[in-house]
Amino acid sequence: MSATATPSALPARPPLYTQLDRSIIWFPLMLVLFEFSVYIGNDMIQPAMLTITQEYGADSAWVPTSMTLYLLGGAVLAWCVGPMSDRWGRRPVMLGGALLYALANFAILLAPTIEAFMAMRFVQGIALCFISAVGYVSIQEAFEEKTAIKVMALMANVAMVAPLLAPLLGAGILSHPLGSWQLIFVLIGAIALISLLGLTRAMPETAVRLEKADTLGQIGRSYLAVLRNRPFLLLALATPLSGLPLLTWIALSPLMLIRDMSLPTWAYGLAQVPVFAGLILGNITLARVTDRVVVGRTIQWAMPLMAVGAALLLACSLAGLGCPLQISLLLGGMAVICFAEGLTFAVLYRLSLMASDAPKGVVAAALSMGVAVLYALGIEGGKLTYVAFGLPGFAVFSALGLLAFAFCVKGVLREAIAARSLDKASAAPMH
Q: What is the number of other CB atoms lying within 10 angstroms of the CB of residue 330?
């Protein structure tokens, strides 16, 4: 499962903790609070963007640019944030990222022009790469394998609350007589500061630091070693493929349900409940069974469920547009697929991170950048397919993506399970 170690590969450090208890629980709690603040930094401000452009006297075309720059900030600097944490340690880099994000939420209040406002949105978005390229790696290094997967699965449930609640919270603040878009940023900045204080107190140092800083050439060779690692490439491709139906659904469901099926807004909101409930139940199931099964087994369980969900989507595309049967099949298919995704994501991240012997900051950064690019391309492809072919196009697009996921992960997963089963057997006490 691993490639030849790069010149700057680090010796493996045993996990600091074998289980999640009171002595360490504040670390993942504060990390997920920071993650929550970063996610609502995107979703919570969207209802206010028209008001913001009006106050700056700018064209409404700037509205989607805010989200684009936020996501771009999270993608463009991951390549250096990961190696920085290998050199200086996860803890100082993570704390620096949390401080930068908190300050950026207050600094944006002073932006004199829409261009300055958008520049600060880019700076805020940089926090996304600290989560994926530093925070998640710290979880993997702090805990032994099964505990790390369990912690990641539980953290994902908290993070899922953000896209559900943040737009409603933002709209609620704006509708209050004393509310304003400035208050939204103050609230987000305050949450970020709380997480910063908590991480300062609770975050351990998990990295074995490099003795001297890598040159750009050495960092480049580390990335090249990662990209030449076939298991890593397959797992890094499988990770976004497993989640693509959900992200495409988030992007397209307003068009599907409100515009094309003529559902009222409240019905659109209710339709999200079974979809996200499936994802949350999948994460909870993963957390409950991880101690009892070989790592990777839940992905094998998930693949037949993905096939069932894809079949329901294909069936719904044949029903009458907007009829109760079609809506039930659509939501049922998405719920089953999301349940399967909940069984896979945390395990895929662990397997991807451990597929290479390169410094883990580099591996995590490569994974983060690859997933971001593939998500963007996939969502755009799903949008174009739906515009051209409607619901049948969405169903076929989702089914083909899940088929590609199974193709990518099948061989690598078999090897990973076999290796871990062998390790478990060799570690068993002799009688």
A: 26
Cα separation, 408 vs 402, in Å, equals 10
Q: Which CATH number does the domain 26-143+167-213 belong to among 1.10.3720.10, 1.20.1250.20, 3.40.250.10, 3.30.200.40? A: 1.20.1250.20
Q: Which long-range contacts (CB under 8 A, 24 or more apart) does 287-295 make?
A: 287/150, 287/153, 287/154, 290/146, 290/149, 290/150, 290/153, 291/146, 291/150, 294/417, 294/420, 294/421, 294/424, 295/145, 295/146, 295/149, 295/347, 295/350, 295/351, 295/416, 295/417, 295/420
> What dotted CATH number matches 229-427?
1.20.1250.20
Residue 380 CB contacts under 8 Å (≥ 6 apart), including other chains: none
Give the number of C-alpha atoms closer than 13 A to the C-alpha of residue 148, restricted to the C-beta side: 24
Is it the case that residue 12 has pLDDT exceeding 60? no
Task: State how far the Cα of 153 lies from the Cα of 398, in Å rounded to an integer.
Answer: 23
Partners of residue 17 on adjacent β-strands: 143
Say yes or no to pLDDT of 358 above 90: no
- Same fold across 26-143+167-213 and 229-427: yes
Write down the pLDDT at residue 6.
43
CB 401, CB 244: distance < 8 Å = yes
- The pTM score is 0.76
Average pLDDT, the chain: 84
pLDDT in tens, 57-101: 988 778 767 877 887 888 788 888 888 888 888 999 999 999 999
Residue 387 has pLDDT above 90, yes or no: no
Task: Answer yes or no: are the C-beta atoms of 203 and 94 closer than 8 Å.
Answer: yes
> In terms of Cα–Cα distance, which of 140, 90, 158 is closest to 295?
140
Q: Give me the residue spans of the domains in the chain.
A: 26-143+167-213, 229-427
Q: How many CB atoms are closer than 10 A to CB 183?
A: 15
Backbone angles phi, psi at 143, to 5 degrees: -115, 155
- Kindly indicate the confidence band of residue 209, based on its pLDDT and cuts at 50, 70 and 90: low
With tokens 């099926």, the residue in question is: 261
Place of tokens 């960092």: 219
